[in-house]
Amino acid sequence: MEEIARGLDDLVRTGKIVYGGLSNFPAWRIATAANTADLRGWRAVCATQIEYNLLQRTPDRDLLPVADGFGLGVVPIRRCPTVKRSNYSSRPTLPPRRASRRSVGEVLTRLGGVDKEKP
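The structure assignment produced for this chain is given below.
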């Protein structure tokens, strides 16, 4: 963690970044990085990015108290679920079917936009 904290400090001092943050680290590593930066006089880590899910509330007991104790901002993220690919995409696709005037007229009549007597 010392290398990461030192690297963030170097980036802030050279002006390449304004604030440094950590992503996907356990609470003890975030605390180690914050303590190391504080003891060495480096620019402190200012935020952490965590995966937050309403069903699995582990950040509530682990990461959020650490972030609050060290004064870190929290950026919650939600990962998109993986989608299984099916063979449907490998099937040949047909060109889009064009609607005939009659079918468009029927749709408009059903919606109440056109009278049946008018052409």
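Interim note for the steering committee: The first helix runs from residue 2 to 14. The chain has a mean pLDDT of 76.
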